[in-house]
Amino acid sequence: MVSPLYLSSNIFILFCSSLLFCFLCIPNALADDTPKTRLKALQKAGIFPKLTGEVFRADKALGVEYQGGLQVTMGNFLTPAQTAKSPHIRFQGDPDSTYTLMLIDPDAPTIADPKWGPWRHWIVVNIPGERQSSNSAQSTQLTSYVGPAPPPKTGDHRYIFLLYKQPSFNKNYPPLSETFDDRRNFNFTDYAIKTGLKLHAVNFFYSKNAQS
Description:
By secondary structure, this protein is α+β, with helices and mostly antiparallel strands. The chain folds into 2 domains: 1-30; 31-207, Alpha-Beta Complex (Phosphatidylethanolamine-binding Protein), CATH 3.90.280.10. The protein is built from 3 helices and 9 strands; from the N terminus they run H-H-E-E-E-E-E-E-E-E-H-E. The strands form 2 sheets. The protein has a 6-stranded mixed β-sheet with strand order 3-9-8-5-6-7. The chain is globular and about 45 Å long. The termini are far apart.
């Protein structure tokens, strides 16, 4: 027989645990994280509509978490040291679909003179929607992760995560060069069109060299 007090306390603990689980599972589970606030942040940063296109509605959240629980929150500032290792990605996706993730820096070498941008930092393809995470054995890195390393005196750089829905699973993506120079001037929009990708979610942060 279980006492009412014991039962009540356990129900309360279970409720709190369930609530915590929900917040951990839903990317950017914040009261002010809505399509409207996301779009406003992207617009303020010059990402929407210039880099996303006019039709993007930011109705899906993209959770990005670096080591130590550091979250990317639509335009916060993170240092190169904090973002040296690849992050964990979470998103709201269709379980029957696959996704492509890109990380680009459009501001290479500077936002005023982006002659080398967009710089390709990371591409992961065939991310299963059922897992809703980049950490999957089924996914493939077309471009290995290279963290932000903006040169001195180049000011703030925008680092943009772009999640695309693929038309289908594709094991025949053409390889991409990993060299420093070949990562420059990556036309991600053209690449998305050629491979049939549809923009699903976006998140971004700022970073800069300590000597800027």
